[in-house]
Write a structure and sequence with these properties.
The chain has twelve helices and 20 strands. With 491 residues, the chain is an alpha+beta fold. The strands form four sheets. Strands 5-4-3-6-2-1-7-8 form an eight-stranded mixed β-sheet. A five-stranded mixed β-sheet has the order 9-10-13-11-12. Strands 14-17-18-19-20 form a five-stranded mixed β-sheet, sandwiched between helices.
């Protein structure tokens, strides 16, 4: 029986197939930004700009511009090859050799127009344009496009034409919109989460790796790092052996702070992440400085008996966190080809998830954390004031509303406390007023009411001052409310 050799060719159909991997708009853009960051000049902060240029009829041109090392003709040829092996010295963000092709094919639906211009310090501008096919023509002496909205410091431009319908895949919820300014806000939120490690000051040198902007022509907005909005958190240090080397991982988890969350994106509420609901509960997974996945729960943790994966439930809505994994060599902790999920055949991920599985996510974490704060504060009060009456059992009103901490000093002065996880909210002050009024109804007037929180704003301080100066209690006297931080009280 004869054997016959066949040469496999990447036909146009292959690239049309790449466009059908269910990648969302922000995932395509992040693949291209990964490439830009990977090409960062060693001594220079990266400058990356994503630009929307309206073409009419629901079409947009998308430019991704950077000031990195760029590509000469040979590097550009290699970048076009499907599944090419990255250079050994290249950045971990160059993982598979599919990202550029995946993104351009998906943005243009495999048949639309795209173009790349790039240069190094020592090479002229080279270029190539699509759609993809088995044969591509490269120019070795081109010019960058001459538009006043493009940045002046350029090494590479990746351009693709796409539709408003596809850009809308950046949305997570709500009615579909054609407002490109609203869609930009969604994109900025995604990029702020994905790249927070690059956009946040390095704890060693206090510098940032670079800047990302998202622009609509010349209307520019900077992408700020979107940090996990913790009310309070715990850090666990986990050791994992990967490929014969032991690595130290940081697992931080805690309670969602809705006040911080509501100012997370340019002082506005996040729209996609940390929404205190079933889809967004769980932790983020960060490898090096890049967030690979968010809201991970059932793929990490198992039930107590270990027989099945943990189910999402409203009891976990306040649970947020992040596992921070140091940079590891390429080939360790791999992802699928479009980086939208883990490669679960990689035993490294299995090892990490098994370690995390020993630290179960707490149910109703807010209530448990606030009860812990309450117990700790009462213990501290009892230890330092043994002759006073201190209790968490003081009830008021017919429905037995319970004060967090009730303290009666030897001279008869009464101090009441409300302890909250996270930032102060107006409703917390009204809880104290309710406690105060309830005590007066039953013949007891507090000397002081204290709200203890992680943090508070100037607005809350002003509200406290107005309550104390303008409002009157049932007996016609003034309230005396104070606000203090847990850390200033040693817990």
């Amino acid at each position: 029986m004869a054997q016959h050799e066949i040469e496999l060719i990447a036909t146009t159909g292959v690239f049309r197939g790449l466009a059908k991997q269910n990648m969302l708009f922000h995932q395509c853009i992040s693949e291209l930004i990964d490439n830009s960051i990977a090409q960062k000049q060693v001594s220079l902060a990266f400058e990356i700009e994503v630009i929307f240029d309206e073409k009419g009829d629901g079409k947009y041109g998308i430019y991704i511009c950077d000031n990195g090392n760029g590509m000469d003709l040979e590097k550009l040829k290699n970048a076009l090859q499907l599944g090419r092996e990255p250079e050994p010295s290249s950045d971990r963000l160059h993982e598979h050799g599919f990202g550029l092709k995946n993104s351009l094919a998906t943005l243009t639906r495999g048949i639309g127009f795209w173009k790349i211009w790039s240069k190094t310090k020592n090479s002229p501008i080279c270029s190539v344009q699509g759609p993809f096919g088995p044969t591509m023509i490269l120019e070795d002496d081109d010019k960058f496009p001459d538009y006043d909205f493009l940045p002046s410091d350029l090494s590479t431009i990746v351009y693709a034409e796409t539709s408003i319908d596809y850009i809308r895949t950046v949305q997570g919820r709500g009615g579909p919109t054609n407002d490109i300014y609203k869609l930009r806000k969604w994109l900025i939120e995604h990029l702020g989460v994905f790249y927070r490690g690059y956009l946040t000051q390095d704890p060693k040198n206090y510098e940032i790796d670079g800047v990302i902007r998202v622009s609509i022509n010349k209307n520019r907005l900077r992408v700020n790092p979107v940090l996990v909005p913790y009310a309070n958190s715990t850090v666990e240090y986990v050791k994992v052996e990967l490929n014969g080397i032991e690595y130290d991982l940081e697992y931080e988890y805690g309670t969602l702070d809705e006040i911080k969350r509501d100012k997370l994106i340019h002082e506005e509420k996040s729209q996609y992440y940390y929404l205190k609901n079933i889809p967004t509960q769980g932790i983020d997974v960060r490898l090096g400085k890049r967030v690979l996945a968010t809201a991970m729960l059932e793929s990490i943790w198992k039930t107590q008996d270990g027989k099945s994966q943990l189910n999402r439930h409203n009891d976990y809505n306040d649970f947020v966190g992040e596992i921070r994994i140091p940079n590891v060599p390429r080939g360790v902790l791999t992802t699928v080809n479009n980086k939208t999920d883990f490669n679960l055949d990689d035993t490294g991920w299995v090892k990490i998830f098994e370690k995390l599985n020993s630290i179960k996510p707490p149910k109703t974490i807010r209530e448990k954390t606030e009860k812990g704060l309450q117990n700790k504060w009462i213990e501290m009060l009892k230890a330092t004031n043994p002759d006073e009456i201190i209790s968490d059992e003081r009830h008021i009103w017919p429905m037995e509303v319970r004060i967090d901490a009730y303290r009666k000093k030897e001279n008869g002065d009464v101090i009441i406390y409300e302890l909250k996880v996270g930032s102060a909210q107006p409703i917390h002050l009204y809880q104290l007023i309710m406690y105060w009024d309830g005590l007066e109804v039953f013949g007891e007037t507090p000397r002081e009411a204290v709200l203890m929180v992680e943090d508070y704003s100037n607005t809350i301080e002003e509200m406290v001052s107005l309550i104390n100066s303008e409002l009157k209690t049932k007996n016609g006297s003034s309230y005396n409310i104070k606000i203090e931080k847990h850390k200033d009280k040693g817990h």
